Structure formats: structure tokens, C-alpha cells
């Protein structure tokens, strides 16, 4: 069954036809009116109340359809533990400017926050998430190795001032069990500031006079970009505290609860547990919640906080990314030119499939780039491939059981 999906116009999204979200909406929906001035940030596929999908050409939401036809979810006991709903939210993101530096609380803390502040934390659920790059994709993820942070503190008096001179000295001297407490003090002082405008402008002016090699070693271009987009924001100094990574198309990263992160640029497929909870730390005009941020954030300075997820191959054309959570997994399906037919691997749970490139016939109906399909559990799907010059690319989200 084809879905009509919600989209979000957050300010950080790419605008108009430059957004892959807008492109997918335009090719799959004849009634979609593209606004070149509007940011098309996210395509939402699922049943979340903030952007529910509907069965196309029918006056019924996907959630209501599932509730009236519970057999589509599958009979597996683990699947039934999630209730009469999809436990995941599937997305496409198109990022022009950085998202806020943030963490997502674990399930226990999410329930507490939802109970205390339901208008801010609207889901009693955790939000582990998986991002699969469609284009070169840049992000912050987790804290840098402590020796890297110390190196920056030794080299940048402006960073020391931003985190507090006393805190910086304590962290430089700290080792073993004392490192975490010292880093917490540095980060707490930084995110509690209203602005670090003076320190950033001083640093940029000083680096401007240096040679290109030195500038590159200190991520001058990234710092300059963040400051241009969020002048004086405390999150600009995340350049020296958080890991800065680039995913190439097809690479994936898993963000577990409590890991600090921020997506900076690029396009990706994203899947997460069905939640929209965010605790923000910087690079945002929105509300920051520093007390809950500090309670929830993991101050792990090992590279294990960068959880690049490698897929395993199910058949010649399908590879699956399985994060360490039961709510979701994502299959990447690439059918090469010249392959006339392909039978999707049958899933024992309900799934959502999006065609990112190419087109094909399913049960005598043609689906093109941007088409989103809801597939009941155990449904056999055979695709007649209609693109012969380039691969057909699809992604499918389902329960990870």
C-alpha cells in the first residue's frame, strides 16, 4: 500500500529543489507544490503523532489502518511486545546547516522527563537512531579522545577561557578516574554561558593570520562556518571537544541514547525508535536544558562512541544494518542495471519501503523515485525493474527481531 507522508520544514533543511526531501516528494506526488524558498528538512514515514503517514488516496491514517488490521504487524511475540503500532520512525534528512548539539535520553529517563515535562518531552520513549549517508555526511559524535582535547586546551587560550581557566588546568592535570569529572566541569561551564562571542572572535582573528596547514589542523573553516551560522553560540567550541566525522555514501553510524551528537551537513536515511525527544546543548536558538543534559550525557572519550555500523549481506542485492536495539533495522537494496526482476526478502514484521532512485512495477502498478510503501508482515513482493541505465536504490525499515 502506497503512503502519503508528512514532511518537516525545519530551518536547517536544504531549500527548494536542492533538498532530496523535496525531490522525493515532487516525483512521487502529483499534487505537491514546490516552494523554492522553503527548507525541506525531513520526510517522516511512520505513525508518530507529529507527522503521521496516511494511506494514499484513502481517508485513513497508517496508524488507524494498523489498529483495524493488527495481523499486518506479524505474529512474533517480540513484535507484539511493542503494542499495536510501528515501534520505529523512518526518515530522509536533507541538511543545509547544523542541527543542535543534543542527546536523547534512555528509556528510563525518557519516561521520567515525559512525566515531569510532557510539553517539552512529548514521548515516554528512548530515541536510539541510525543514519545511513546518501551523500558525504558530516557530524559531531561523542567526545574526542582526552589527549586530543588536552592538546587543544594547551594550544588555544580562548578555549581555556570558554570552559573556565581553573577547569582547564584541572583537566590538563587529570588522569584515570579524575578525567571524567574534570571534563564534566569544563562542559558544564561552557554550555551554561549565554555567549562565547569574545573568545570565538579572538580565536578566529588569531587563526586568520596563520598559514593554511595550521588552520586546517585547528578546523578553522568549520569553526568559522559554525560562528557564521550561530554567532557566539557555545556550540561553536564543540569543534575541539567532539569527534568530527565524515560518512561516505552507504556508510552508517548508530547513535545510542545519551551520546552527544549533531548532524552538520549532507543527506541521509535515518531510522529511530518512535520518539521525538531531544535535550539540547548548543548550536540552537531553542531551549537548552543543562541540568538534564548533564544528568544524561555519556562522557566517554574513547573512539567507541563513534559506532560506525557495518551491514551484512542477505543476498546479492540486499545488505542490512542491524543496530543493538529491537525496534528497527534497515535494509539497503541496490538492483543493478540489466536485472529485470527482484523478489524482496520477506520480513516477519510490517515494514516501510522507500524508492530513492529508479522505478518498478509491483502488482501491475508503477512506483517511482519517492514512492513510499507499507508492506504487511510476511508479504511476498516481486518487483519488475523499469530502470535500465542506473541502479534502482531502495531502503526498507522493519522490526529487528
| Coarse morphology | globular
Low-confidence stretches: none
Strand content: 25-35%
Q: Level of helix content?
A: 25-40%
- Rg, rounded, reads 22 Å
By DSSP, the count of extended strands is: 25
Number of helices: 12
Q: How would you characterize the largest beta sheet?
A: 9 strands, antiparallel
Distance between the termini: 23 Å
Structural class: alpha+beta
Mean pLDDT: 93
Outline the fold blueprint:
Blueprint: E1 3-4, E2 6-8, E3 14-15, H1 20-28, E4 39-40, E5 42-45, E6 54-55, H2 62-68, H3 77-80, E7 88-95, E8 101-103, H4 107-116, E9 129-133, E10 137-143, H5 146-155, H6 157-163, H7 165-173, H8 178-192, H9 197-208, H10 212-217, H11 220-229, E11 242-247, E12 252-255, E13 261-273, E14 279-282, H12 290-296, E15 307-308, E16 312-313, E17 318-321, E18 329-335, E19 341-343, E20 351-357, E21 360-362, E22 365-367, E23 372-375, E24 382-385, E25 392-398
Antiparallel strand pairs: 1-6, 2-5, 3-4, 5-7, 7-13, 8-14, 9-12, 9-13, 10-11, 10-13, 12-15, 16-17, 17-18, 18-25, 19-24, 20-23, 20-25, 21-22, 21-24
Please explain how this structure is put together.
The chain is built from twelve helices and 25 strands. It has about 400 residues and is α+β, with helices and mostly antiparallel strands. A hairpin with a 7-residue loop joins strand 17 (about 320) and strand 18. Helix 6 (about 155-165) packs antiparallel against helix 9 (about 195-210), helix 7 (about 165-175) runs antiparallel to helix 8 and helix 9 packs antiparallel against helix 11. It is globular and about 70 Å long. The two termini are about 25 Å apart.
Amino acid at each position: 500500500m502506497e503512503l502519503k507522508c508528512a514532511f518537516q520544514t525545519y530551518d536547517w533543511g536544504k531549500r527548494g529543489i536542492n533538498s532530496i526531501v523535496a525531490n522525493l516528494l515532487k516525483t512521487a506526488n502529483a499534487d505537491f507544490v514546490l516552494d523554492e524558498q522553503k527548507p525541506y528538512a525531513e520526510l517522516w514515514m511512520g505513525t508518530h503523532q507529529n507527522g503521521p503517514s496516511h494511506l494514499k488516496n484513502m481517508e485513513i491514517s497508517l496508524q488507524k489502518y494498523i489498529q483495524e488490521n493488527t495481523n499486518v504487524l506479524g505474529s512474533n511475540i517480540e513484535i507484539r511486545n511493542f503494542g499495536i503500532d510501528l515501534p520505529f520512525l523512518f526518515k530522509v534528512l536533507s541538511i543545509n546547516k547544523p542541527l543542535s548539539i543534543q542527546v536523547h535520553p534512555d528509556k528510563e529517563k525518557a519516561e521520567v522527563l515525559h512525566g515531569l515535562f510532557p510539553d517539552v518531552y512529548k514521548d515516554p520513549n528512548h530515541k536510539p537512531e541510525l543514519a545511513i549517508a546518501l551523500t558525504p555526511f558530516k557530524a559531531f559524535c561523542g567526545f574526542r579522545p582526552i589527549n586530543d582535547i588536552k592538546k587543544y586546551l594547551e594550544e588555544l587560550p580562548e578555549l581555556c577561557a570558554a570552559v573556565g581557566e581553573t577547569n582547564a588546568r584541572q583537566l590538563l592535570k587529570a588522569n584515570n578516574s579524575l578525567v571524567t569529572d574534570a571534563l564534566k566541569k569544563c562542559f558544564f561551564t561552557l554550555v551554561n554561558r549565554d555567549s562565547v562571542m569574545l573568545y570565538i572572535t579572538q580565536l578566529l582573528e588569531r587563526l586568520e593570520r596563520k598559514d593554511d596547514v595550521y588552520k586546517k589542523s585547528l578546523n578553522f573553516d568549520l569553526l568559522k562556518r559554525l560562528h557564521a551560522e550561530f554567532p557566539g553560540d557555545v556550540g561553536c567550541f564543540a569543534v575541539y571537544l567532539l569527534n568530527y566525522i565524515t560518512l561516505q555514501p552507504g556508510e552508517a553510524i548508530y547513535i545510542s541514547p545519551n551520546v552527544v551528537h549533531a548532524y552538520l551537513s549532507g543527506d541521509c536515511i535515518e531510522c529511530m525508535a518512535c520518539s521525538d525527544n531531544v535535550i539540547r546543548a548548543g548550536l540552537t536558538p531553542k531551549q537548552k536544558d543543562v541540568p538534564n543534559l548533564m544528568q544524561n550525557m555519556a562522557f566517554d572519550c574513547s573512539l567507541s562512541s563513534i559506532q560506525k555500523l557495518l551491514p551484512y549481506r542477505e543476498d546479492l542485492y540486499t545488505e542490512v544494518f542491524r543496530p543493538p536495539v529491537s525496534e528497527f533495522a534497515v535494509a539497503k537494496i541496490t538492483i543493478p542495471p540489466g536485472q529485470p526482476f527482484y523478489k524482496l526478502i520477506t520480513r516477519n514484521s510490517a515494514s516501510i519501503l522507500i524508492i530513492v532512485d529508479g522505478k518498478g512495477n509491483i502488482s501491475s502498478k508503477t512506483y517511482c523515485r519517492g514512492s513510499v510503501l507499507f508492506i504487511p508482515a510476511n508479504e511476498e513482493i516481486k518487483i519488475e525493474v523499469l530502470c535500465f541505465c542506473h541502479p534502482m536504490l531502495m531502503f526498507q525499515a522493519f522490526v529487528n527481531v
